[in-house]
Amino acid sequence: MADITAIRHRIKSIGDTHQITKAMELISVAKMRKMTEKQAFSSLYFDSVRYTVKDILRHSADVQNKYTALRGGGRAAYVVIAGDKGLAGAFNNNVLNLAWEHMQRYPVHYVITIGQMARAFFEAKKQPVDLEFTHAVASPTLHDARGIVRDILDLYDKNLMDEVYVVFTHMYSSADHVPEVVKLLPIEEKEIRADVNTTFSGDICYDPSPHEVLEVLVPQYLIGLIYTALIHSASSEHAARMVAMSSANKNAEKMLGELGLTYNRLRQGAITSELLDLTSGKFFYENTVHGGQEKE
Amino acid sequence: MPDKFYLEIITPEKAFFRGDVESILIPSVGGDCMIMAGHQPMVFATQPGILTITVNGQRREAFMSEGFIEVRPDATIAFSQAVEWPEDIDERRAEEAKERAEEMVRRNRSAAEYRLNRIALQRAFARLRVKHHEYGDRS
User: Fold this and answer.
1) pLDDT, tens digit, for every residue of A206-233?
2) B13, B47, B68: best mutation site toward chain A, by most A Cβ within 10 Å?
3) Which one of A154, A160, A165, A208 has the largest count of C-beta atoms within 10 Å of its C-beta?
4) Residues A134 and A237 in one domain
């Protein structure tokens, strides 16, 4: 049997933790909703960018851009997007392990991390992190995405890598988020997911030329990809944390119930034994002390 | 009364404009272009500049950053990183951006940077131009 004060302490500490997890769940719900709204606006825009890029690449095979040319080498760079904080179930582990496995296929790989958990993971694996972005995880903005794309293109232009992959968690619904690897560079038509249903399916002219339209669109396509990945990752993180916290809440409530029961039982037991002590003490006193005195 | 067509202007953050218009004048990469109802299906790339929308004979100007415009038979959709009405433009910020970009262009370190800075400069100029039109500096 545990000590009664120890149990009282445990009840207090579990109660405190319960309050924290409850608050975290509410925060995650609110943040996830905000992210989902952001995503709805941006997807309208970037889906069209994707579709148009795909359309140009499909119809005009001769159009070349320096970012569509295959380089054919074994050097890959990975942009790994995870969270800044833990306590989100398996969210961080899932995406980081996927990145780690995928990486092993390339003899030379560079790692670009977004989020502190990602950096900590690769440091623990003794994999040097080549570039790191902070402050882009909690509430990603287009500005962040632009900066990240600019830096990556900088490295790509210096011919340091042949391929760039983005590893992030794709959120399909609040209960369904899957870590995915998406190729960022070079841009290939078959890799572009475009699920926009345009009402017009005929050939479209490009002004001034498909080449120049592509020139304008490519940076936007890359920014869009990174921005979408950041937003998906952020909302998945919040969704995962929401689920983790709600199960933590349930557990806390269950434990509090059980501990309360044990505590009450112990307390009752203590009272009973005290009462027993008192009555038996009185009985003993009356029978021995007083009895002895009367005999004298 | 000229024919109207449906126009949508979309940025990654919001839907900037939705409605029927008579014509739009766009800052296309190949030079300014006027689009009216019944235009051939086309995609235009745009550079930072002034977008002029005409509805019921009323002209309104807005700043439009780089993007593209899709003309379809049923609707015309403009996509751009940023579109702003003159009243939403922060003049001081644009002025600062202009000075910064000018400074960078002057330093002119590499071709890629030059291109980037030139676009930034173009953006700042276009913002300021739209802003000044509002106050009737030029008509």
Assistant:
1) 777 778 888 888 888 888 888 888 988 9
2) B68
3) A165
4) yes
